[in-house]
Structure formats: C-alpha cells, structure tokens
Amino acid sequence: MKRNVLVLAVVALIVLAGCTLARRPAQEPTPSGEGEAAPAVSGLSPDAIAIAQERGLGPDDITAALKTYLPTGVHDDYAIFSSGGHSGQVLVIGVPSMRLLKVIGVFTPEPWQGWGYGVGNDVLDEGNVDGNEVRWADTHHPALSETEGDYDGQFLFINDKANARVAVIDLRDFENKQIVKNQVAVNDHGGTFATPNTEYVIEGGQYAAPLGWEYAALDDYNDTYRGMVTFWKFDRDAGRLDEAESFAIELPPYWQDLCDAGKLASDGWVFCNSFNAERATGGVEEGNPPFEAGASQGDTDYMHIINLQKAEEVFNAGKTFDVRGFPVISLDTAVEEGILYLTPEPKSPHGVAVTPDGQFLVVSGKLDPHVTVYSFDKIMSTIEAEKWDTDDYGVPVLGLDDVKEAQVEVGLGPLHTQFDDQGYAYTSLFLDSAVARWSLGGDFADLHPEDPWQLVSKINVHYNIGHLLAAEGDTVSPDGKYLVAMNKWALDRFANVGPLLPQNFQLIDIDNTGDAMQLLYDMPIGLGEPHYAQMIEYAKLSPWEVYPEVGWDPQTQAVSENAVLPGEEKVVRNGNEVEVFMTAVRSHFTPEHVEIQEGDHVTWHITNIERSYDATHGFAIPAYNINVSIEPGEAATVEFDANQPGVFSYYCTEFCSALHLEMAGYLLVEPNGSSAMLDQE
Length: 681
Ligand code: RUQ
Ligand code: CUA
Hints:
The protein is mainly beta. The protein folds into three domains: 2-58, no CATH class; 78-540, YVTN repeat-like/Quinoprotein amine dehydrogenase (Methylamine Dehydrogenase, Chain H), CATH 2.130.10.10; 552-680, Cupredoxins -  blue copper proteins (Immunoglobulin-like, Sandwich). It has eleven helices and 44 strands. A hairpin with a 4-residue loop joins β40 (617-621) and β41. The longest helix is centred in the N-terminal third of the chain and has 21 residues, at 2-22. The structure holds (dicuprio-$l^{3}-sulfanyl)-sulfanyl-copper and dinuclear copper ion (CUA). Residues 617, 652, 654-656, 660, 663 line the site of dinuclear copper ion (CUA). (dicuprio-$l^{3}-sulfanyl)-sulfanyl-copper is lined by residues 140-141, 189, 258, 350, 415-416, 466-467, 531-532.
C-alpha cells in the first residue's frame, strides 16, 4: 500500500517536472549574447558585422550558422531517415542543413507521388488488417539495412506501432515496396531493427494480448495474454521480407518495448527491454491502480536476452505452432531450447542500445537517474554456469549483479542512447530536457583512461527529448560529428501555429569531443510525431537519377510487360474491358483522345519515355480519384470503372515544360443508351 502511494507520488512529480520544464519562459533570441550590447565579432567584414549586430547574433550564433549553411548547389554530408510519426510516412532530411529533402509515402496515401491514387494501391492493400483498409500508421523506428553491422544504403524498414506492420523501402528509388501485417500481434512497438547483415528485421511487441488477436477476458491475463517478438527474414535479392522464412517467439506478458540486435561480440543475439513486469491490467474506473502506477510498482522490469541463432535452428526444425498461419516458437520451447533469458533492469526502462563493439548493452530506466550497462561476456558466463532463478513462466532470470558492468548517473528521465567514434555515449534525458555525454569503459576506456563509465558533460535541449540520433550512431562504426535531439515539445521555439505544435529536431555539434557540445539548428516537424531516425553518410547512398530503362516498373524493379514505347500507343477494346497504352513526353500525352463507354472497365498504361534527370510527368483524371507521378523511364498502370459519363480532361500535374499546360487530353465517357451507342449497334 505504502509503495503504491510512493509510486503515485513519483509519477505525480514526474508529470509536474515535465510541466515545469515545459513552461520555461521564452528566451530572447540572443541565446549566446551575454550582455545587452551587440557582441563583437572579429575577423568578419564590416557588412557581416553590421548584419550580425542588426540581427542581434552572437559569436555562437554565427558559428552555428556557418556550420549549417550550404551555398546553393552544395549537398549535405548526411541524410536522416526519420519516422514521420502518425503521418505514416518517412522523412528524408539533409545534415547539416536540416533541409527536408523528401517525404516518402509509406503506409498513408501521398498525393505528390500518386501513392495510393492509382499506383501503390496494391502495396497499401497488403497492409489491410483482416480486410479493413487501414490508411494511416504510427511509424516509430526506421532501420537502415546493414552489412557487417554498418549501414549499406540499400534498404530502409519501418514499423507501424498501431497495427503491427512493417514496410520495406528500396533506396534506389526511395519508394515503398512492401507492407507486411503481423499475424501474431495486432500492434507492436519494438520494430524495426536490422541484424548486422540484415538477415532479419526484428519486430517486437508491446501491449500483451492473446496471440492472433483472439478474445480472452482480462481476468485470464496471466494465462492467456502473451508478448511476442517476430523475426522477418529479409531476401536482399528480391528486396522483400520473406514471410515463408519468418517466425515469431511467444514471450511472457510483460510489455516488450524496444529491441536491438547484437553485433560483433554479441552477433546472433537480440536484446529487448520491457516494462510492466508487474503484469498490471489497469481498470482505474474499477478502483484498480491506473496503468501508469500499476506498471511501475516494482523496482525492476526484465531485459529479454534472445538467442536468435538458436531460435532459427528451432524454427528450421519445425518446432513451432501456428498462429493465423504464422509459425511461432512457444514459450516452453523457447525455455527448453535455451532461446530466452531474462535479467532485471531498473524501473520502467525504455530501449536497449548495444555498444559499437557489441560487448555492452545499455538500458535506461525512465524512473532511475542511471544508465545500466550490462556485459555480454558476463551474460554468457552466467548462462553457461546455469546460474539463475526463474520467473512465473519458468524463464531463467539472471541476477543483475552477475551481469551488470556499470551504472552511470546521467540525470533525470534517461531514455535512449547513441554512440560516437571517440568512446562516448549520449543518452537523452526526458525530464532534464538534456543530452548527457558519458564515457564508455571496457575496450573504449583506452580512448579516455582517466574516466571510464563517467558522466562527462550535458547540453540542454528544448524540450522533452525522446529519441536522439548520432551520425551512424547505432552501427559498429559511428561517425560522431552530429547528433539530433528529437524533442517532443516545441512550445516557445517557433512562431505560434495554434494549439497543435510541431516537434523540434535540434541539431547538435558533437565533433568537439571533450568540450561543450554546441546547439546548431532547430528544425520544426509539422506532420506527426517522429520517434526514431537514423543518420547515414550520404556517400553511402546511390539512388538512381532516372529509372534504368524505359518502361520500368518500380514494384518489380524490372521492365514492365505493360511498357509503352513511342509508336505503340493505342486503345484496345475487349468487350467492356478497355486498355489504354499511352506515352508521356514533354509536352504531350499520346493518345490525346480516349473515347469509351459508360460501364467500361479501364486499364490505363502510361510510360514516361523521358531519359532526362527530373523530367517527371504527372497524370490526373478528375472525378475518378486518379493521380500518379511518373518519373523518367517509369511505366505506371491505373485501373478504374468508368461509372461516370461525361468529358474529363486528363492533364499533367508537374510543371514540366513551357508547354506543360498544353500537356492534356480528353477522356470522353459516353453515357449508356446515347445515340452514338445505338448507331454502333
Ligand atoms: S519510442 S521516445 Cu522509440 Cu516508440 Cu522512445
Ligand atoms: Cu508533363 Cu507537365
């Protein structure tokens, strides 16, 4: 009872702290100027000094501007692939300029790309949930494909927390190719994370429920509700997740949160944190403790330690049962086969981060000011010695003291951790609204022997940081240089746009290791709340400028059988099936007249026969909800029922040339029973 009160008090304090932090007064826009007078800036031309003085810019502002400014035509060094939050999309952002380069249509229709308005409809349909069209998503964690633990720039995966779905984006054309729906869980959280060679894409669950989205009363929670982790096999050649080679593992009904794949020393293992080891089931309206209190009563939750290599063997041996046709390794089998272990982790943890050498795992409890560092070696020797207790489900629980390497006090509300190339880790502090830089021990201690496992410095951010990302900061070879704080609150940072505010990405210079980190830039994100993002060196990406050949189908990444070449344009009728074969080139469509009958089913193929960089054409038909973007070389096919008679001018939606407005045509849909039709008969 006492403990409940304590927990509630702590929760209340946190809420209060969050509010107080959030209510910091707006600062004058001279964050670096010490006094009133305009700061002196030496070495700048009189013009530059005058501008700096007029705008009230201090030396730090000027260095920040110089570090982020890109002259026209100069490209960014890094790209951020960010979750688009509930927009269901992916954002591509250049670093250091923080310019938005692209929004990729993923789970949600996107009109500019025509995604879901004629093209991409099949992929969006793959994401239907039991026949229900779900056309939004809560995207959380993007994962770049990896080779030997390093980003290879080929693919990007991203999960939808709301509906437990995973999408695959091909980075040759930055287009979504596939959506898979998890059959075991109806929603997820701990995805997506790639294994070091992208053999698997990990999707962990969150809110325990009966597997296969079955019904069971909450009274039966302990016996019938379960957690899960799913391993989606990735077929790199096909550029698709291979459902037939994928499997899940049944987990106890703790709320699994985020996972990370082991690498180098810990390759072949996977780590997931969890919360609600208390197995609280809520029901505040029935006098039960609310989830926030019930799920944070205990001092510890469980980190899940999963032997993926072993799990793969067990799956291949067929020791699984089916959930909605999807193979699942049962909890009992996972225990018997030595696939699953647990170890305590401090209060209400959020996320696991594996150090670049794979030797240590970092977990932060949101209600504990420390990060806890686990040693993979110690985990292995404890397992080998079979030194464990068990939980209520018979899962071995390794003692914290047996596997812990260090605890570092970093500040209030620690969440997520990233790494640099100098042996430092960076942890986001939600309640402090800060980023803590701390030094790693182990082999990294050589880089700064004086202070292994020590807090080194902090930088304030605005406000309530969630995830953070450093350049390649979750790979085997982080780059350092830049860090981005993904802040949940923006309040006074931008001009008021009404009660719904953007999120704020703050770019931080971490290159000057050992000295203070420097805040460089605020970027508002005005669509959905992004969660995680990854930052890749731009040189690792090699996207196409135009599709490799004329008539390219982006879905199959091959020349389409429906490609239309110049001279082959035609309209073919077969009963009431009409097939249009069209080309698009500056500045006309061929044909320009398409005459059909009300009730026809229309299949319309268009090939953009251009080979010039950026010569995109759009194609829109009013009233029929058709709108596609056809990049140079691309072949697109749209289908519709001509259920509406009339005259519909189709036109190009991209201002492609001086005669772009003339790039149009007439679709004539003759009403049934009209004289022309009678004449034909
Ligand atoms: S979440 S702010 Cu990754 Cu979905 Cu942590
Ligand atoms: Cu083609 Cu405008």
